[in-house]
Each structure stands twice: as structure tokens, then as C-alpha cells.
Give the backbone structure.
Amino acid sequence: MSSRNVWVCITAIGNHHYHDAAKITLRSVLRNCPFPVFLGVDTPERPYWAEHPRVITELLPQWDSVLGRPAFLAKFTTLSRLVAQHPDAYILQLDADTLLVDELSCKDIRNQLRDHPFAMLEQTTIKGSSNDRNFFLNHYINHTMVWFGGNTKAPPVEKFQYFNSGVVLSTGPIMLTFLEWCTSVIERKPNHHRVGRHMIADQDYFQYWLNTLHPGQCNTLPWYWNHCEHWHDSFPKPGTLICHFSNFCNGPDIDTVNRMHALLESGLPAP
């Protein structure tokens, strides 16, 4: 593994807050790691992502025209184009509301993947609630598994992990296989990715693949790889690698953008 075959993948679509947040994510990546960045955007009118030699830009379709499909699925388009061009790459997929706040190296990537093709954080709760792994498993059974259908069985609670897709590490070959499966599902499903009032998004695809179809493929990232105030105390905590300003399914807003900018400029608090 070298810095030339590790790619950071970011997707920037939608309103200007989403793009402004992605700009800050991009700046943090360029500042704190040597890896090239593969950036999927839905407008050619924002020049900042073409101004650095390590940034490769892919123009995506205007996602508003893809009726009924959540914008989160645009990430699969960006990832598919990256893997098509760099099939043997190691991939760090970052949501546009994340910040790389410390230095990241090839060794760090290797240490987290180990002998797994994926690595993601398990979200174990939502602060202020009683949600635990049992709660998340019930949600998975009643929504994710209902969406994908079939005769599959839910994993036992001790083997289930509610993976958060804000930060995803993977190898190119397995990501290609995963994305081919995603495409086959999307093509045979109705546009409206919902079960009741619950959206079915990219995270559900990752969870179903890793919990039901291919258990054991994913290593569990430590907290500091996907540190978020919604599931961790003392945000932002010293020792963090990646801060995640999740707004759940709402996408970044002006408050997200301002907080990301402030943290990028000030850095983490002292221990």
C-alpha cells in the first residue's frame, strides 16, 4: 500500500450548505493526509474542488431529477466511478459533514482494515435515549430487512452491528462487488426508498451486506475514526482522527458549516 493507491472519496450534491460543508471536508483532507481525493459533484459552477492537483472531480447528474431516490445514493455513483478508474485502490469514503482533524497515513489504513475488506464504526446508542444494540437490531429487522426482502434471517444480537456509513474504509475489489449488488437492488426496487416513514439510505445497504449477506467482512473502527456528538460524550474529544457532524438524514445546514469551519481553524481541545 502506498499513498498513491489510497483514495479519499467525497460526494457533494444538493444545496449550497452541502457544498460548503464538503469544501471544508476537502480542506481538512488535503491538510492532514497525502492521499488523492475523488470528488463527485452535481454542479460545475463551484471552482474550489478543481484547484488542487490531488483532487479529481467527477460531475454527477443533478440528483433532484432522480425522483424519489434519496440523495445519499449519489455516493454510490461517485464510488462506482472511482472503482472503475482505480479497481485496486484502498478507499476512505467520507461524508460531506466529516472533518479529518489529525494526520492520516497508509499505516493507519492498514491497521484498521487488517485482513478485512471493510472497516466501519458500530454506532451503539443515540445520546439522550435508551437505544442500544437490541433497539438497533429491531430497527434493522423492521425496516432494512423488510426493504431488501427475501428469505434471509436476522443475525443474533451478539453478532449484529449497527454500522455508521459516515466513514467507510474498504478495498477496491470488494467495493466493486458491493456496488454491483447495490445497482442490481436499485434497478429492481421502486424509486421511493422508504419503509413506512423511515428512509432507506446508503447505510442500510452497507448494513444488510455486512450483517446478513456477508457477516465477518467488516472490522470495527475505534471511536476516534468516527467521533460524533450524537453517540459519543465530550465532543470534540482530544485524540480524535475524524469528527462527524451528523445531522442524521437532513444533511448539513448553516450551523454544521459554521461549526466545521470553527473546528478546522481552531483544532481539537487540549487533552
In short: The first strand starts at residue 6 and ends at 12. The mean pLDDT is 91. The helical segments are 16-32, 74-85, 106-113, 133-148, 172-188, 202-213, 254-266.
